[in-house]
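Shapes recur. Our protein:

. . .
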Amino acid sequence: MAAEGKSIGSETESAAQQDLPGLDLTRLSDWFAVSVPGAGGADLTARLLAGGKSNLTYEVSDGERTWIVRRPPLGHVLATAHDMAREHRVMAALQNTDVPVPTTCALCQDTDVLGAPFYVMERVSGTPYRYAAQLEPLGPERTRAISAGLVDTLAALHTVDPTVVGLADFGRPEGFLARQVGRWKKQLDASHCRDLPAADELHARLAADVPPQSATGIVHGDYRLDNVLTDDSDRLVAVIDWEMATLGDPLTDLALLVIYQRLGRLLGGTVADASSAPGFLTEDEILQRYAASSDRDLSRFGFYLGLAAFKLAAILEGIHYRHLHGQTVGAGFERVGGVTEPLLDAGLTYLKEH
């Protein structure tokens, strides 16, 4: 999933150049010299950033400047996922809006370079807070400010007019919710490695009662605290991980943010639990703060919560599949498979709550 927990310009884990998966530095250096503005002819060095459960993210330097390179994961890749051109396009379109995004530098769709499409963007200094233990030293007041900024930035994204920023054709908003139900069922089926009865029940309930959609907007697709970078002044300086972005019903972003918060409480250190830190906005406060900046109808929010749980379960099962087949990079993947079933059960409960 896009839940990589990485940092652009913050904590990383070093990797020997010859051991970097998915990154041929010799080929990349040749392409960089002619394709990236400001890049010199010097040989490149690189390190793999922490995380990598989905798209692989590298910090690349020519000795004077540093960039970020993003490419799809190795091995088993689901259809329509990990589209580098889409991720590059949406960030480029948002450059002059109230939504902070890294500056994009170049896009490469020639698979002869790295074996897959990839893009280059600026390195932004900031922290993708993932765990409560990272926020607790900041204190409740600063944590509250960070979580409030998270909600405000999401609301700002959902007020952007796709047509004005050149994204009118970025997706098919009509029938978006129904297609999401079907899409994540297909993703689950494509990563099938065990029976999940709760997935069948949740899918059936969602498909049988799709509500009218709210007004079309830009959907990030995986919005949460560790997919934004926060600077030392507690300002959100960049929203990252746009691989699932599209046009559709923005309430799906809000629901996924809430699901991540509930998941952190349910499963603790197995997943990101930053929202458990003292001072972090409660679920009700998140919804109230968002509603204050939006006129979207939240009366059927239970459906959105159920859909968010279903989507996240499908993503996690895809990661579990790749782990079983030795196609993941990094640590912690052995725990992912244990999250899917509790999440599906929770999704059924969420439908009944609202």
